[in-house]
Amino acid sequence: MLFLKKIAEEFNLDENKLQKIYDEHAYKLDGNILADSYSLPVGMSEEYILFYLFSQTNKKYEEFSKKIFGKYDKEKWFRYISLASVIQKEAATTNEMPIIASVVHNRLKKNMALQMDGTLNYGKYSNSVVTADRIRNDETSYNTYKNKGLPKDPVCAVSLDAIKAAIFPVKSNYLYFVRDNKTGLHKFSNDYETHQANINANIGVAKTYTKVNDKPNDIDNEAIDIMKNDISNQKAPSIKDLFNSVN
Q: Helix, strand, or coil here: 80?
């Protein structure tokens, strides 16, 4: 795991020992450590540093869940972490996250396969280009081209922003998106014909952007409001509807 490799290098720890401890005590294969900033003193053992990160993450997960739903169900919460990890992989910007989330929710509700490359960027493939061969031959639940629903485990560490977007998606009819080579942002569409036109618009267009340019429309503005407002000021969708959509 790349994250553990970085910890081992930064703190002069044994990467194999870190991996063994992680494998023995992690709740899921990924998503157990929140993507956040941590203050870690030099001299921590492999056990201490991982248990500290696990406990800090679980504390934040519990606080966030209780603030939204009034309770913390770890098993159900990790379905949101799986959903948030897809959003984390796919969104070009933080403000895109609730829009990507709406696509995921809409496809799940229609019993459509997600068909998202980001879900195949898991574990040792986290930084790999997803090829047609991978799509054909990967038999895991992470292959959302072959399997409907979410992967059984998160595909990466997630931020609180991604979790927020997973729970508070914008209201849209979007079912498709493709990254625009000119802007670095995604073009969203309700139907496959428009989606294919957006794909065709990228043909022959080099990826010239060095920084994504955010030019908001009405749905973008809704997403911006979701991300900037505190969760305590937002009404969560029905917990039943949400859990049904991520089961």
A: helix
